[in-house]
Design a protein that fits this description.
Blueprint (H helix, E strand, L loop, with lengths): L14 H39 L2 H35 L1 H34 L6 H30 L4 E4 L2 E5 L1 H5 L4 H29 L5 H35 L1 H8 L10 E3 L2 E3 L2 E3 L2 E3 L2 H7 L20 H35 L6 H27 L4 E3 L3 E2 H4 L6 H32 L28
Antiparallel strand pairs: 1-2, 3-6, 4-5, 7-8
Helix pairs in contact: 1-2, 1-4, 1-6, 1-13, 2-3, 2-7, 2-13, 3-4, 4-6, 6-7, 6-11, 7-8, 7-10, 8-10, 10-11
C-alpha cells in the first residue's frame, strides 16, 4: 500500500509488491463480506414476511436475492482462498513465528466457512423441495455462519493491533492461550464496527438498485418492498455506527498512540489539540488543513485539556513515515465524511417515514439513495485503510515489523500480475451473471412469476406503500 521504511535501513525489494497485492486482494474481498453477513439477513426478513403475511412478492424477493447471494458467495470463496495462500506466500515472517497464535482464528473461520457453504447449498436447493419453515431456518444458519466467520477474521486482525494470549521465551512463542488470542482487547469493538458496516454497505447498495427503479416509475409493491427492507436496515445501523466508531477512536487513543497521532495529524505531544480537516503532513508540519480548535483533545478525553501523544513521543525507529501519516489521515477524513452524508440521508428517511408512513417518493431523496451504496463502500474501504496502514511499520504491534514479515525471495510482481488477472476474470464473470439476472428479472411481470411453496391465494397488497405495520 505505502512504503514505511526504517531510517537508514533499506526495505526488502519484495515489500512493495507484497503490500500492493495484499491491499488489492483485501480491498476486493471486503466488498463481498457484507453480502455474506447482511444481505442474507435481509433475504430472511423478506422470507419471514412472506410466510407470516402471505406476501408472494416478498417471497419472490427472497428467492431472487438468494440467487444473488449464492453468486457472490462463490466469488468470495475464490477471493478468500487466494487470501489464505497469500498469508503464507507473502508473509512467512508472520506465519512462521506467530502462526500458532495468528492461525487459530483462521482455523475457526474455516469451520464457519464450510458450515455456511453447506447450508447455502441446502437453502438454494430447498426452495422447491423443503417445507417453508424448515427451509427458512436453513437460511438462518447461513447468516449465523457468516457472522461467525467474520468474527474469526476480525479476531485475527484485531490481534495484530493488540496482541494477547501468547507467552514469549527467548524471542519465540512458547505458549498460546487460544481464548485470549481470539478475544483480545480490540476484538469486541472491531467486531461490532465491522458487523454494522456490513449491514450499512449491503443495505444501501441493494436499496440503491431499487431506488433507481422507483425513479423510473416502477412503484409497485415488489419494488417498494425491495427498497424499504434494505434501506431501513442500513438507516437503523447508521447512527449506531457513529456511536461505536467514536468509542473505537478513544480505544485507539489509549492503546495505539501512533495511529491516533496519524489520524489527527499531531506532530508534537500536547493538549488543546485541534481537529484538522484535510491537510497534509509535510516536513514535520501540518499544512493546508482547516483546524477546529481543541476538538481533537475534547473527542479523545471529553475535555480540551486532554493530552494527545504526537510523533515526537514515538521512537524514531518505529515512527510512521509522512506518506503513511497522510494516507491514514486522509482516509479517516473520507471515512467520516462519507459516513456523515449517509447519516444525514438516514435521518432524512426517518423524517419522511415519520410524516407519511410510506416509501418516500421525493426524487432528490431517491437520487441520493442511488449513490448511497457507493458512499458506503467508500467509507468501508477507507476504514480498512485507516486500520491497516495506521498500524505501520508494524505487522504485529510491538512484536513484528512489516519489513521483517515479508518474503525475501521470488518475483512477487509476477505473482501480483497473476492475481490481478484471476480477480479480473472472476469479477467480470460475476458482473456479467448479475447483470443478466437483473435484466431477465426486469423483463418479467412480477405478478405472473410463480413462487415456491406460494403463501396462499391472498392477493398482493396494491394501491399503497408498505406501512408501519407491514415491516
Amino acid at each position: 500500500m505505502v512504503l514505511s521504511a526504517l531510517p537508514g535501513v533499506a526495505d526488502p525489494a519484495q515489500l512493495l509488491p507484497a503490500r500492493e497485492q495484499m491491499a488489492f486482494t483485501l480491498g476486493f474481498h471486503i466488498i463481498l463480506v457484507p453480502f455474506g453477513v447482511a444481505f442474507t439477513f435481509m433475504m430472511l426478513i423478506c422470507q419471514y414476511r412472506a410466510l407470516r403475511r402471505h406476501d408472494p412478492q416478498a417471497l419472490l424477493l427472497a428467492q431472487r436475492w438468494s440467487k444473488v447471494a449464492a453468486v457472490l458467495f462463490a466469488v468470495g470463496a475464490v477471493s478468500g482462498t487466494v487470501l489464505t495462500f497469500e498469508m503464507g506466500l507473502l508473509w512467512p515472517g508472520l506465519m512462521g513465528p506467530y502462526g500458532s497464535a495468528f492461525g487459530f482464528p483462521f482455523a475457526i473461520e474455516g469451520l464457519f466457512f464450510f458450515l455456511e457453504a453447506i447450508f447455502m447449498a441446502i437453502y438454494i436447493y430447498g426452495w422447491k423441495r423443503l417445507p417453508p419453515w424448515p427451509h427458512f431456518f436453513t437460511g438462518v444458519v447461513v447468516t449465523l455462519a457468516g457472522i461467525g466467520g467474520t468474527a474469526a477474521v476480525i479476531a485475527a486482525n484485531s490481534w495484530m493491533n493488540q496482541p494477547a494470549g501468547i507467552v514469549m521465551r527467548n524471542g519465540r512463542v512458547a505458549e498460546v492461550i487460544p481464548s485470549r488470542v481470539f478475544f483480545n482487547g480490540a476484538f469486541w469493538w472491531e467486531m461490532v464496527h465491522m458487523l454494522l458496516a456490513a449491514y450499512i454497505v449491503a443495505g444501501f447498495l441493494v436499496a440503491g438498485v431499487y431506488a433507481t427503479d422507483l425513479l423510473r416509475g416502477r412503484r409497485d409493491h415488489y419494488h417498494r418492498l425491495g427498497f424499504l427492507v434494505p434501506f431501513t436496515v442500513a438507516a437503523i445501523a447508521m447512527p449506531l455506527q457513529f456511536i461505536v466508531g467514536d468509542t473505537i477512536a478513544r480505544q485507539v487513543y489509549d492503546r495505539e498512540p501512533a495511529k491516533f497521532a496519524a489520524i489527527e495529524l499531531v506532530p508534537t505531544t500536547g493538549d488543546h489539540v485541534p481537529e484538522t480537516l484535510g491537510g497534509l503532513y509535510i516536513d514535520g508540519k501540518v499544512r493546508y488543513g482547516i483546524p477546529l480548535p481543541d476538538i481533537a483533545s475534547f473527542l479523545a478525553g471529553f475535555r480540551s485539556s486532554a493530552v494527545i501523544k504526537g510523533f515526537d513521543a514515538i521512537p524514531a525507529a518505529v515512527r510512521p513515515t509522512e506518506a503513511v501519516v497522510n494516507v491514514v489521515h486522509l482516509a479517516f477524513d473520507v471515512m467520516v465524511g462519507s459516513a456523515t452524508l449517509l447519516l444525514l440521508l438516514s435521518l432524512w428517511f426517518g423524517w419522511l417515514w415519520w410524516r407519511r408512513r410510506e416509501v418516500p417518493t421525493n426524487r432528490w431523496f431517491l437520487r441520493g439513495s442511488t449513490v448511497a451504496g457507493l458512499l458506503a463502500l467508500l467509507s468501508l474501504e477507507s476504514g480498512w485503510v485507516v486500520t491497516e496502514v495506521g498500524r505501520q511499520p508494524w505487522t504485529v504491534v510491538g512484536l513484528l515489523l512489516t519489513r521483517d514479515a515479508v518474503a525475501t525471495q521470488g518475483n512477487l510482481w509476477l505473482l501480483f500480475a497473476t492475481v490481478l488477472a484471476i480477480y479480473a476474470c472472476v469479477g467480470a464473470g460475476a458482473l456479467f451473471v448479475l447483470r443478466a439476472m437483473r435484466r431477465r428479472w426486469s423483463e418479467e411481470v412480477t405478478d405472473a412469476v410463480a413462487v415456491p411453496y406460494g403463501p396462499g391465494p391472498a392477493p398482493e397488497p396494491t394501491g399503497r406503500a408498505p406501512g408501519a405495520d407491514d415491516v
